[in-house]
Each structure stands twice: as structure tokens, then as C-alpha cells.
Amino acid sequence: MRIPCCHTFLAFTLKFLNFLQAFVGVVVIVYSAYVLSKWNDLDASRPAPWFAYASMGIGILVFCISFIGHIGTEAMSGCCLCFYAILSTLFVLLEVGLVAFITLDPHWQEDILPDPTGELDNLRTFIQENMDVFEWIGIVILTIQVLSLLLAVILRSLVSSQKVDDDIEVDYGYNRSNREPLLTSHSSPAPALNRGDSDIWSSRMREKYGLSSGDLKHNLLDRHTSAEAVK
Q1: Cα 78 from Cα 164, distance rounded (Å)
Q2: Which residues contact 127 (CB under 8 A, 6 or more apart)?
């Protein structure tokens, strides 16, 4: 099956966007692993650092979603692309809900468990000091996710329509190959029918005059000779 140029371009763009998201997921995983390693070196008997575990879970989720999108794009699988679109939609909605919760609730830190590692406070302070940069980073990440979702939906519809067209072409070619010529089918039984009529006429003549096959041929030959002599 030949893949059109538009499919190739969309697939390449989606792969690149998935690569960027996977890179972000790996960075979050490495950061979480560093925080956990640092925490275990200090005192492993203290409460578990939920912020580090939550960050690692988010990083793994982002990486898995990007990996599913890459597989669906590489294999041109409509099922994988549909599953990728559903997961991306849920993840974007989760991000929007989290941002809305932090924006609308000025005392959001009081509603969550305290972070024993202190990394949450350090990260919040770092983001506040560089708010302009992180605003653009957030916009870029959200744009990449929305574009990935849109491209996945478009590519999914193109793959489905191309599969339907290929099935129609295959069925049409199969029907044409099995079609028989009309002249051959109607003209072939003609000799058999003529021979059958001749045999029936000969048998009736033998029964009528009580002749054998040799006598019938001899009488017919005499009649034909006498007819020529009269002419």
C-alpha cells in the first residue's frame, strides 16, 4: 500500500512532537529520581516524599503516551492513534484542571499535604522568580500537546478513509477478474445443440423406415445422386 505525501508529512510532524513530549517526560523522571535518591541518602525512615513520586508518575505517563503515539504513527494504526488521542485528551484536561485549581485558589498549598523534601517550595520559588519564562514554557507545552492531538485525529481519519478506498479497489479488481466473456458463454453450447438435433433426426428416420445406420446413409446418398441427375 502506497502512503501519500500528506500522510508522510503529518506522520513526521507528529513523531517530532511526540519526541519533544517524551523528552519532557524523561527530564521529569530524572528529576524525580534525583530527589528520591537525595531523600534516601538523608533519612529513609521519614515519610515518603509524595511530590517526588507524583512527579515520577507524571513523567512516566507523559513518556508512555508519547510512545503510544509514536507506535501508532509509525505503523499507521488507527486503533493506536485513537487510543493516543483519548489519553492525550484526558491528560490535557487534567493539566487544565490543575492550573485552574492553582489559579482560582490562592491558598492551594494549605489544601495539599506538606512536602517533607522541601522541593515543592523550592520549585514554586524558582517558578515565581522566573514567571515570564515559565509562562512561555507552559504555552509552548500546551500548544505541542494540542497540535499532537489534532494531528492524531486528522491522521486517524485519513488512515481510515484510505483503508476503505483500498478495500473497494480490491473488491472491484476481484469482480473484474472473475467476470467471463459474454460471447464465449453463449456461443460455446451451439455445436453440441446442432449435433444433438442431428442424432435425434437420424434416430427418428431409422425408426420410421426400419433401417440401420448404414442403410440410412446409403438411401440418403442415392437420393442425393438422383437429385443431381435430374438437374
Answers
A1: 12
A2: 134
